[in-house]
Amino acid sequence: QVQLVESGGGLVQPGGSLRPSCAASGTIFSIYTMAWYRQAPGKQRELVAHISSGGNTNYADSVKGRFTISRDGAKRTVSLQMNSLKPEDTAVYYCNILGETDWRKVNSVWGQGTQVTVSS
User: Fold this and answer.
1) What's the rounded Cα separation, in Å, for the pair 110 and 40?
2) Distance (Å, rounded) from C-alpha 35 to C-alpha 48?
3) What SS3 class is residue 73?
4) Which of 56, 89, 94, 102 has the smallest number of CB atoms closer than 10 Å to its CB?
5) What is the pLDDT along the chain (120 residues), one digit of tens a residue?
6) What is the rounded distance in angstroms from the CA atom of residue 64 to the CA atom of residue 72?
């Protein structure tokens, strides 16, 4: 079973920034593509960004140009730098392996996530 623990969310005004992060085991970090998901009240969980073990990144159109996903090899962490935050970014943010196929391989489960609230 694999469960990542997220931290670094909070309350911020529109236009502000936050940088949540999570830590992974050495095996998970080095082998799998890591992703950030989010789920807003009343909505389905959506993929926000992901980064491969080789550092290749992808972003949802809604966050492209504002968010940056990164990996820290020394700390085995995955971070999501969120700039120019908008109220519609308000959600619980989750860190996990990318994709259902790999979730099954490592018996991944969803953690509690970290709350990001963007409001004036």
Assistant:
1) 15
2) 7
3) coil
4) 56
5) 788 999 999 999 999 999 999 988 878 888 999 999 999 999 999 999 999 999 999 999 999 999 999 999 889 999 999 999 999 999 999 999 999 999 999 999 999 999 999 999
6) 21
Q: Where are the alpha helices (DSSP H) in the chain?
A: 26-31, 100-106
Nearest one of 9, 29, 48 to 97, comparing CA atoms: 29
DSSP 32-47: SPEEEEEE-TTS--EE
Residue 86 in tokens: 């908008």
* Distances 114 to 24, 49, 54, 101, 105 between C-alpha atoms, Å: 16, 16, 26, 24, 24
